[in-house]
Amino acid sequence: xxxxxxxxxxxxGLLGVSHDTSVEALPGQTSEIKIGGGGRLIxxxxxxxxxxxxxxxxxxxxxxxxxxxxTPPTAPMDSSDAKAMSAYRRASNEHAAKQQRYYFGxxxxxxxxxxxxxxxxxxxxxxVTEPPKDPLNPDFARFDFTREIGSLTKDxxxxxxxxxxxxxxxxxxxxxxxxxxxxxAGE
Length: 187
Description:
Helices cover 16% and strands 33% of the residues. It is an alpha+beta fold and 187 residues long. The chain is globular, with a radius of gyration of 19 Å.
């Protein structure tokens, strides 16, 4: 079982899968499942500098993740081999389930909230893209074919919650996003 993060409502688009929880379902028995719990609420904000927030950025999945564990499986050379592709997809899903990754979206003011994050060291990755040429094309939302125009990557440490204020969110701070046109201008 897992938690699915969708930033595009009922429309097609990329999904974030997190909080993987193994479940044993036995015949004729009821299983109680608890997904998440014990983590902290993380808040923060992104500064876009002189760039104006673009509405489609609210649908771009952002990540907070433990730096990758293990090596992901390699896709088979022959994609028409159904057995090999099935084994690859299964191995890929198992690898993804081992990664401790949380997904979230940006709000128009640049703020963000990540729910139920366990204490530890993480890499925050935020990216923004150019607007789609045809926003009504369903492939835009499903496959995110737009070019990245800005990003930031920061390592942060999420501490244990204090015993006197266990519900208090952890404020990760304000981060300035670097746009690719600014990098070129500064060279």
